[in-house]
Predict the 3D structure of the following.
Amino acid sequence: MRLRGAGLVVALALAAVACGGEEETQPTATVGPGAESPLQAVDELVEHLDTPDFAAAAALAVPNHAALASLAESATFKEVAEALRLGDADVAANFWSGFAQASSTFFDGEVSTADGPPTNEQGVRFHTVVIMSEAGGRRVVLVRDVDGYRIDLFASFGGGLAARMIGPVERLLVTDTEDARLILDELEAIVPSLAAAAGASGAPPEASQHLIQLIELITRIG
């Protein structure tokens, strides 16, 4: 399938700088259903970011991932816990808004998407979608079936998040509050995603090291 908006593909490759963003979160974001296939999930994401419709894009992130990823953006434990309890669709909308903002200075043109080989990590099946830019470049996004197909933020972009999450997770481990315990419980669920990111072909060694360090911290919880 060929799509417009290659600048958005650049954003997918630059997740380390893209998950912030100063644009306002769209208040109408809801979890909603996922896509019917891994390929469709990525195609729909690119379309929503190109529109832009960040509220619609929010449904294409695995639930709770954006809330946990906000630890990398200095969100308080109270804010993260509230998003976990009430739903993190608005946080996911802001995540994708940051992606679109980060892509604005990059090239435009046609891109193509194609299914890649699936992979399994700690009993979790990840579907690979390869995104290729007409101007050059190849990026990979990992998608999971979570009540419909959705982008796994940590498997896809964990290399850009892990380094900034290590400090907050260290503080969580020595914080005895209900909010901290809730966040730590949810972090345990993303270990397979972090492992998938660490083992991805082409992952920079420094990013893989940060991912492994984050996994080691999280697995201390048990």
